[in-house]
């Protein structure tokens, strides 16, 4: 535990909460995209890009603040790493949206929706956890649940990939679908990295 | 060189040695997997998962210790980075095992076994080097040899990929094999990152 | 702003400038490679490997210096990260050269040349910016322009990928081309990471 010379700067918590809120919006749009037809998809992907820009702005505000202030509520490097880790989740999801549109994918296997539901739950839990960084209390239930969800998503991903290859007749269609599925798995790994960072920060502060 | 206020904490060396030991077990299982038929593979992959869990536990013990102690035998960030780098090697190898089972691969080209032999040698050298972190002596022969082995694996990998494409008739089979081969190359790069970290640590301490 | 006990060490700036110079050479060779026939390509790729070794030597000189000196012109971790980020750009470009030769690619789509032209411009801007790290002046025009170029390359990349899939009849040919195109995009992302690091360093020092 470090000595604190000034009151904790609360703005970081607000910015992290805001950033995580844009991720919740993003996972909602991703779920919407899966149910949409090809015509509607473009508009949904555009809304995702807006959410991504808002998330970028929040991440950038964190970094800027970090470079201009001496006193931070917890380790500078951890703040920087947490902002980046949240940003990586947004980027992976944005890539998934973009690929679904770009590849003009016809219909996605049902298990893809199951993976996106796990992502939605991860996003909600993450957004609920961010304000709790202020007191560092009740965070362990969050990271335990994220690890459980990541495990579940990992199993779904392996089943999905096996399914894709078992049913594959068109290699080009397979390449497209596999890339989307792998990027969704990256997003899920990203949520786990965020949770691991939160765990590390909480341990240091305890 | 930094002043040391208390005796060096030896447990880190023990934990790194233990972690590297699980990697030796893992590369052995990977070699076994290549020689096994599809029925035996599942059981070998399950034993790999056990080795991976043991490695995770050792890495987690290092991180936990790091977050709870003030005095570390060398730079905190380097300890953290080294634990992570060793963990990444395990993860890459686990992914290779998993893909071989998941993709129900028939037979793997002979050069794949050559790559795995290089991985086995890297694992042994790494496990032998870990206890030497205590005195920081006789480490240069280790990292020089790892760089040489990584170069050798890189050449094998390029030959393998060229061979896969030259002989490819079935694109779906190619995708499967290429993914396995690329993940094995990642594992090899991982050993090199571990060696580079050890080199950095040794230079700082000298 | 930190107190400075001794004059700034200028050698880091020289080494960064040298390293970026090798990247300029590399992007030039990459452009040459695209215009060459299969016979000439091998010789050009070999010259790229020479440029890569020279870049590695400069990066290694930076790391070595860092591990042996107390006083650095800016944050140690940032120097290390910047050297690594520049090295990653070289590695991505080397991989692109290598794949073009290894895959015996016939002809590359015109948009690939457009991407490489963006990389050449990024390399020139980066090389011009490195000496300006000394005074930290006139750097913002550099990172603003790199972000703009990365955006442009990203759009080109998405068009290229869509084009590859729309025209694809041979899945194996598609896999080869897509890998080259993705690695070029990685190189471009690498330039952006360099610019973001420079921005972070400049903000800290201001």
* Average pLDDT figure of chain A: 91
Name of the top-level CATH class of chain A: Mainly Alpha
Largest interface: A-B, 12 and 11 residues
* Percent of sequence in beta strands of chain A: under 5%
CATH-assigned fold name of chain A: Methane Monooxygenase Hydroxylase, Chain G, domain 1
User: Structural class, from helix and strand content of chain A?
Assistant: mainly alpha
Profile the largest sheet of chain A.
none
The CATH architecture of chain A is Up-down Bundle
Which geometry of chain A do the CA atoms define?
A: globular
Give the termini separation of chain A: 7 Å
The named CATH superfamily of chain A: Phosphate transport system protein phou homolog 2, domain 2
Instruction: Identify low-pLDDT runs of chain A.
Output: 1-5
What is the count of DSSP helices of chain A, taking H or I runs of 4+ residues? 6
Question: Can you write the helix and strand succession of chain A as a string?
Answer: HHHHHH
Oligomeric form: homotrimer
Helix percent of chain A reads over 70%
* Beta strands of chain A, count: 0
Structural overview:
Three copies of one chain form a homotrimer. With 206 residues, chain A is mostly helical. Chain A has a single domain, classed as Methane Monooxygenase Hydroxylase, Chain G, domain 1. Chain A has helices at 11-35, 38-68, 76-102, 110-129, 140-167, 171-205. In chain A, helix 1 runs antiparallel to helix 2 and helix 1 packs antiparallel against helix 4 (110-129). The longest helix of chain A is centred in the last third of the chain and has 35 residues, at 171-205. The first copy, chain A, starts with 10 loop residues before the first helix and ends with a helix. Mean pLDDT of chain A is 91; it is low at 1-5. Chains in contact: A-B, A-C, B-C. Chain A binds chain C through residues 63-64, 67-68, 98, 102-103, 171-172, 175-176, and chain C through 158, 161-162, 165, 168, 171, 174-175, 178, 200, 203-204. Chains A, B, C: Belongs to the UPF0111 family. Chains A, B, C: InterPro entries: PhoU-like_sf, Put_Phosphate_transp_reg, UPF0111_domain. Chains A, B, C: This is DUF47 family protein.
